[in-house]
Amino acid sequence: MKILITGNMGYVGPGVVAQLREAFPEALLIGFDMAYFAAFLTNATVLPESKLDVQLFGDVRTITFEDLIGVDAVVHLAAISNDPMGKEYEDITLEVNYKSSIKIAKLAKQAGAKTFVFASSCSMYGAADGTAKTETSVLNPLTAYAHSKVLTEQDLQPLADEHFTVTCLRFATACGMSDRLRLDLVLNDFVAGAITDGNINILSDGSPWRPLINVQDMALAIEWAVKREAPAGNSFLAVNVGSNDWNYQVHEIAAAVQKAIPGTSLTLNKDAVPDKRSYSVDFSLYATIAPDHQPRYNLTQTILDLANGLIEMGFKNNDFRNSYFMRLQVLSSLQRNNFINANLEWNYKLTESYINPL
């Protein structure tokens, strides 16, 4: 089996590579990444890519048919990955997240791939109306990032057939420790504040709903999607991925961090402009169809694992919101130093591939 993983050098990728290597020990695993964040390892004991057979360096916007020859399954993680980046690079977000995703799926199908797994998002539900969103709820994307996920799902569906299974995993908000950590995520931000300043600074009024999922449980869901056998008429599937126990309001997430890390204070911005991105989500379908791949982490465990990881790193940067732990800051720095251009393309040619000698 040959599996191509795009965006493997991001926050989610290292866990996915490790999970797929464990689940498919004989598979040929290939990474494909732009390498924006390759240098920003966090407490990794080994290079995550050492578990791959081949690492390709490239832009998903220019991926070719040749890159996909012989691939059985594509795990598509690559994306402009959050709302601040989507706001800064709105046109590029649609180009990378939407147009490139459809291009890759079409090329993969033409090349003979049987499985396409798309990392989608619950953010497409937008604003809550008091009910938990199911897969049939009206979609209300409020950001370029969320809009790109909606468009991609819509255009992936017609590609699915008895020979090409498409699974769109609508993930809850990611959190937890990774070999390439991000702190521009709500729980991770709160834990970092508690470790550095002993204070959680909530930038909103704390009322929005956010479902959460540990990044390792995202990898577990991706393993399931790669294995998924589609019964007749179910070659396309869009499913909410998370746990009904992990629906929280932002102030509840902050309170959980405060409880898990003694001595932490909490600052709430009661005068903040209301955050319309607020949604609780029903994960019952995923619980039914993937009983052996349900989330294994709970909130407290995730908080403590992340806190311990930061402590082991000697993490003391109380200005972390302006550090390379924020994805937008990395891209901005690469542009300021003339490594990438305004279109987020490298100003030099990437090495095309690395073959693992092990």
Secondary structure: elements and pairs:
Blueprint: E1 2-6, H1 13-23, E2 28-33, E3 54-57, H2 65-68, E4 73-76, H3 83-88, H4 90-110, E5 115-121, H5 144-156, E6 165-171, E7 173-175, H6 186-196, E8 199-202, E9 209-214, H7 215-227, E10 236-241, E11 247-249, H8 250-260, E12 265-268, H9 284-289, H10 299-312, H11 327-336, E13 353-355
Parallel strand pairs: 1-2, 1-4, 2-3, 4-5, 5-6, 6-10, 7-9, 8-12
Antiparallel strand pairs: 3-13, 9-11
Helix pairs in contact: 1-7, 4-5, 6-8, 6-10
CATH class of one domain: Alpha Beta
Helix content: 25-40%
Low-confidence parts: none
Shape: globular
Number of strands: 13
Short description:
With 358 residues, this protein is of the alpha/beta class.
Structural features, described:
There is one protein chain. With 358 residues, the chain is of the alpha/beta class. It has a domain at 2-177 and 213-244 and 275-296 and 336-355: 3-Layer(aba) Sandwich (Rossmann fold), CATH 3.40.50. The protein contains eleven helices and 13 strands. The chain has helices at residues 13-23, 65-68, 83-88, 90-110, 144-156, 186-196, 215-227, 250-260, 284-289, 299-312, 327-336, and strands spanning 2-6, 28-33, 54-57, 73-76, 115-121, 165-171, 173-175, 199-202, 209-214, 236-241, 247-249, 265-268, 353-355. An eight-stranded mixed β-sheet has the order 10-6-5-4-1-2-3-13, with helices on both faces. A three-stranded mixed β-sheet has the order 7-9-11. Helix 1 crosses helix 7, helix 6 runs parallel beside helix 8 and helix 6 crosses helix 10 (299-312). The chain is globular and about 55 Å long.
